[in-house]
Amino acid sequence: MDMYNHNIYPGDLYAKRAIKRKVELDWGTEDFEYLQKVEFHAGGALNEVRPDIIVYNAGTDILDGDPLGGLSISPQVHHLL
């Protein structure tokens, strides 16, 4: 599962085909929508496979004001992830 700003990532179509569950976000996606999509798609992904371990990397480019990611996730929500 990969959540990303579809306007900037991934720029490589070959890499994009390798993502099994794409969660494409728009510029400026905020806390509420982001958390809804995490919950919905993580639940769906776990119904598709039963992993022995889960690694969740929220990254830092999702934070409001980060020029790379273009999203608007507050520091408070980022710390919850």
Question: What would your notes on this structure say?
Answer:
- By secondary structure, this protein is an alpha+beta fold.
- The chain has one domain.
- The chain contains three helices and two strands.
- Strands 1-2 form a two-stranded parallel sheet.
- The chain is globular.
- The mean pLDDT is 90.
The number of domains: 1
Helix-and-strand structural type: alpha+beta
| Oligomeric nature of the chains | single chain
Strand coverage percent? 5-15%
Number of extended strands: 2
Summed up, the helix count is 3
End-to-end separation in angstroms reads 15 Å
Average pLDDT rating: 90
Low-confidence stretches: none
What spatial form do the alpha-carbon principal axes imply? globular
Helix content: 25-40%
Order of SSEs: EHEHH
Strand order within the widest beta sheet = 1-2
User: Nearest-angstrom radius of gyration?
Assistant: 13 Å
The main pleated sheet reads as: 2 strands, parallel
Quick overview of this protein structure:
The protein is α+β, with helices and mostly antiparallel strands and 81 residues long.
